[in-house]
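Q: What would this chain look like folded?
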Amino acid sequence: MKGWIPPLPLVCGLGSFGLSWVVLFAIARTGLPDASLLSLAWVHLVALGWIGTIALAVIFFALPTFLDVEWSGPWQATARTCTLVFPIAALALSLGFWLGSIPLLQVAGTVILATLVVYTLAMAQPLAIALRGERAGRAIARAFSITFCALLLTAILGASFTYALGGRLWPALLVGTPQAHALLGIGGWLTLLVFGVSGRTLGPIAGARSRSLALHIASSSLVLAGTVIAATGAAARLPLVVVVGSALILSGTIAYAADILDVLGRATVAHRPPQAWMAAGAIWAIVAATLLLASAFGAPFAPAGIFVALIGWIGSAILAHMHHIGVRVLLTTLRGEDDETRPGAVLCTPISWTTFALYQFAALAGAYALCANAPLALEVAAGAGLLAFLATAVNAVYARRAAVFGTIRL
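A: My prediction, written as structure tokens:
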């Protein structure tokens, strides 16, 4: 069990997921979010506290599994410890933004950067083994290495921003750094991570796989190139370069969505909610990339683009995996690593669909609120999102009861 996904970070991540809707409601009550510190508190609570925490926990298990390498010893223990430190530091960073405390921001940003450096060094062990192995393993290892580079660069820019806020680094970093940081974090780190992981997890989720390796490679390559170009343009304050990069990102997301929707159209697994989450996420990815391109042309859609990217696109993908992998973690924790019960056998399907409907409504209402300057709609989005979190928690309790007492629906 030591090599399986650590359950505590998943719980911490879901806790941040629930808290994020409370924070969003509080922000909506003060007016629509902009580039204020309160808005940054929400963004980092979602991107780090919820999505980032769960991502690091999943990678802990998924990366060695995808690479088919043995992983044990002190480096594994170190990586596991990092998955526990990270959510605490992420919560501290969000609190620092909320309180406007520069010292807390600097401490939390430094701890996050140090934790991610150590985590990446720990994950370098299985990556190094795979890079000396067969061709398929080398390709996966190279892809994850690029993703980790994007993660570290995002963290470096983020930590630098906190020190620039305190006057300890060049004030010029306050101009181009935030946009480059967001592009690298959402596009280079989280989006490419979901692209890579879903290429392997869609098999268990849907019972089908991609029919076009070239389309998968093209989508990742376009998003990677677009992210690097757009982030460089943002940092150098070159709007035309940002437009070019944003157009490439949109092209890559369209290619990814076409591939995902083709796979889901051939799905044979009877447990449909995770498939619906992935389909919705793929569509939201296109919307987010479109809003990004529009904002590059000068439209005031940057906040909406960030919201849709985090909630509609990546959040939907995370919840798809939580309704599959997350339940498998629960089952193996309670029943042992050899348990093969499928998630659909212990989850309550009506609750799963209710969660899906509430969450997608929250994403739609939030996107509308930020595009149309409608604070009330953002409050409604926060309420629907909180209900989706509560429904997720109820379903987790239901699944635990079914796993413990054997009330499994076949």
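The chain has twelve helices and no strands.
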